[in-house]
Give the backbone structure.
Amino acid sequence: MEKTNPMSLRKMFVLGAAVVALGVAAGASFAQTPAQKATIDAAKAQGVVGEQADGYLGIRTSASDPAVQDAVTTTNAARARAYAASAAQAGTTPDVAGARMFESQLLPRITSGQWYRNAAGQWVQR
């Protein structure tokens, strides 16, 4: 049986706490305007936008409104900053922070009918 490194467990805990403290668990809406959040929520409901396994939003369809593209870009930039900050505190990478956020916070919140991109790169409807 492989022994768990207590330091790696500590880093995982710090990473999770840091991401939550940065507000990413609240939907990463801290850099969005209310209008951008509403735009993303509507786009998710229409199947245009979905969460991705890397912790970022993705645009599923090629014909998306410029307001949707802007809202996704704004949200993803805020998430990138949050993931970088939490990764630095935990001694890991922003990619790991984003993937962990997807698994622990974003995926469980995807409602029936919404789309997400899994780790294999496939769009899946819940």
Notes: The beta strands are 49-52, 57-59, 115-117, 123-125. Residues 56 and 76 are 6 Å apart (CA to CA). Helices lie at 6-21, 34-46, 66-90, 94-109.
